[in-house]
């Protein structure tokens, strides 16, 4: 279980995260949604150790992540993907995954201690990478340079790299961004297939159709705070969420008028490609 406990993040004068508390349970998919700048990626960056917290605690199974150096966070079982693809373009797909199993910064002594060196260990790692590539439909691309793959495939390689070490917490930062309809559907099937009793998954997304169809619980962030949490039906019915989506109540009227030529209650419906209102 991943726990955000009264977490705050200050960037200079900006309070990007303002007293956020919620739990991410294993066995289910927890979505985090919210307008641009709401603080979603900042939560991931803090959990992964890229950013420190200004106050509060982030815990995995009771272990406080902020007390661990970054490479130990991966050992604690937390993996993430990036909003912008961060693959080693010139390396093969399978090498990109192997890197996740032996971080280059780990020295020889440390590697020996953890049993990461030696031919048998290397073969085992490679087999593991190939098994994950197979699972995500990427086996045919294993030896290709990551940078030469289509964008949608690169997003899947990022996912493969995140899951190869068998994390207990998986943070996906906009995995569907930039994907077409078919690629998004494929991604959805992969994410659903990854769901496991001992894996806590966080899905950050703007694609409401995807969110509403696969999330067990949805955390709505707005201006650094948790605005609401609930299942898809509860979030759809929440008027505060609708306003965060669409702007001020006046804006709802304008959008309604433009969309339907008459006043109606605006609802966030499955499949509606609404974009967030920019605060
Ligand atoms: N390293 C940083 N330095 C200063 N400000 C930052 C930094 N990272 C994020 N911020 C600010 O913190 C706020 C939250 O940003 P964040 O990237 O977490 O939003 P987000 O919800 O992921 O948005 P998006 O949907 O656009 O990805 C924004 O105002 C952003 O400009
Ligand atoms: Mg983001």
Automatic annotation (TrEMBL):
Domain of life: Bacteria
Alphabetized UniProt keyword annotations: ATP-binding, Nucleotide-binding, Transport
Gene Ontology MF annotations: ATP binding; ATP hydrolysis activity; L-isoleucine transmembrane transporter activity; L-phenylalanine transmembrane transporter activity; L-valine transmembrane transporter activity
The keyword Transport is assigned to this record: yes
Gene3D superfamilies: P-loop containing nucleotide triphosphate hydrolases
GO BP field: D-alanine transmembrane transport; L-alanine transport; L-isoleucine import across plasma membrane; L-valine import across plasma membrane
GO cellular component, one term: plasma membrane
Residue ranges of coiled coil: none
Pfam family, one: BCA_ABC_TP_C
Residues in ABC transporter domain copies: 2-248
Family recorded in the similarity comment: Belongs to the ABC transporter superfamily.
Name of the molecule in the record: Branched-chain amino acid transport system ATP-binding protein
Protein source organism: Ancylobacter tetraedralis
């Amino acid at each position: 279980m991943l726990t955000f406990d009264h977490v705050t993040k200050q960037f200079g004068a900006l309070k990007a995260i303002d007293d956020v508390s919620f739990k991410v349970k294993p066995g289910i998919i927890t979505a985090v949604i919210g307008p641009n700048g709401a603080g979603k990626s900042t939560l991931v960056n803090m959990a992964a150790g890229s950013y420190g917290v200004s106050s509060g605690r982030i815990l995995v199974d009771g272990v406080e992540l902020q007390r661990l150096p970054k490479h130990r966070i991966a050992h604690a079982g937390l993996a993430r993907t990036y909003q912008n693809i961060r693959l080693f373009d010139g390396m093969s797909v399978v090498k990109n995954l192997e890197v996740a199993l032996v971080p280059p910064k780990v020295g020889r002594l440390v590697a020996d201690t953890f049993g990461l060196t030696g031919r048998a260990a290397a073969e085992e790692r490679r087999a593991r990478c190939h098994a994950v590539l197979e699972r995500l439909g990427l086996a045919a691309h294993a030896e290709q340079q990551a940078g030469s793959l289509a964008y949608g495939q690169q997003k899947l390689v990022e996912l493969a790299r995140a899951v190869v070490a068998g994390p207990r917490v998986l943070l996906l930062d906009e995995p569907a961004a930039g994907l077409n309809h078919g690629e998004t559907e494929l991604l959805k099937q992969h994410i659903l297939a990854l769901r496991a009793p001992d894996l806590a998954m966080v899905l950050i997304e703007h694609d409401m159709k995807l969110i509403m169809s696969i999330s067990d619980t949805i955390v709505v962030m707005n201006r650094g705070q948790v605005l609401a949490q609930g299942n898809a039906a509860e979030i759809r019915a929440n008027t505060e969420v609708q306003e965060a989506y669409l702007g001020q109540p006046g804006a709802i009227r304008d959008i309604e008028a433009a969309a339907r030529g008459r006043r109606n209650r605006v609802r966030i419906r499955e499949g509606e490609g609404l974009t967030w209102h920019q605060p």
